[in-house]
Amino acid sequence: MTKIAAASTSSLKTPHDSTKAAKRRRKQRKKPQPITVNHAKSGVTIGFKETKSKKRYKNSASHISRIHQLNKEIEKVNADTSSSGNKLAKLLALQTQKEQLGGIEFYQFLSQAAEGRHGNINSSKWVLAKLKENNVRPAQGATLQLLDVGALSLNYERQSKWIERTAIDLNPKQAGIQRADFLTFKKSCESIYDVIVLSLVINFPGDPRTRGEMLLQAAQLCRHGGCVFVVLPLACLSNSRYLTHERFHAMFASLGLEVVNSHCSRKLSYKMFRKTGTISDNRIFPKKVVNSGSNKNNFCIVLEASSADRPLVPNRRQNS
Fold first, then answer.
1. DSSP label of 187
2. 199-203 contacts: CB < 8 A, separation 24 or more?
3. Is the separation of the CB atoms in 237 and 290 below 8 Å?
4. Do the beta carbons of residue 229 and residue 156 sit within 8 Å?
């Protein structure tokens, strides 16, 4: 009788007991885990929390910075003309480190993530807005020939009635994007583009001279009256000891391109240039400190006239 009574008493629940049980259940609930994206090739995992406004990626800036640093070291070793026996070993070690970080595929993933994080999602929207704002239109019955360098996706598809897009990348991730190196693309042809888009690509090579060659290549592929659009991390121009916005504009001016529009977001610099002149043989922009300070970065572009420059192509349009 006593046991039955005790059991009956323990089965009775009061409102206070229910509240305590609910609190215990809430404490026992597991906290939501961050969604992760695995890079199968390298085993690198990025964690981020999904919010209504944007995705917050952890350590992406440090990964991008390290990949840039490795690119710089690789190009420095390649440029070494000494017959050092350990040159191949150095290159192999650097390439291995780069692959362990995910290589170019992981860099592309981070670049796509950065578009949302930097506040101006997809630079093609800005390009289209500036083309319309500056009344850049094709002749009746024609289309603008647009070269999208380092394309991560097929932009400008909805504008196919007035824009004929050519998308290239070193490691295309989508059908329709050509596998090509911008520095050698159309090098032997006379194809001239009305619009060239360089969005977060000039900062990818580690060698300052390679970056300068990219500017020259853009100027040579752009037809007279055409436009070159450049997007760079803001720190490359605002916090470099070797480069400023004014010096960057002067480099393009020496290539016959004048700045039409320039503005900055919190993390990026957006610039639109128009081809109004010719490429000067007297361009001299060596590596030179123009903005001293211990907190400055070392981003640099070297642009100098060279006997290796290919002759200028005629300013007439060709089909791509």
1. T
2. 199/123, 199/148, 199/149, 199/150, 199/229, 199/230, 199/231, 200/111, 200/114, 200/123, 200/150, 200/231, 200/232, 200/233, 201/149, 201/150, 202/230, 202/232, 202/301, 203/68, 203/232, 203/233, 203/236, 203/299
3. no
4. no
3-class DSSP assignment, residue 240: strand
pTM of the model: 0.66
Residue 94: is its pLDDT beyond 90? no
> Is residue 100's pLDDT more than 90?
no
Alpha helix ranges (H) inside the chain: 2-11, 15-28, 60-79, 87-100, 103-117, 123-133, 208-221, 235-238, 245-254
Structure-token pair, residue 233: 């991390």
Determine the average pLDDT of the residues in 160-181.
Answer: 93
The continuous run of DSSP H or E covering 311 comes out as none
Strands 178-179 and 303-304: unpaired
Write the pLDDT tens digit of every residue in 227-259.
999 999 999 999 999 999 999 999 999 999 999
Amino acid at 3: K
The end-to-end CA distance of the chain, in Å, is 97
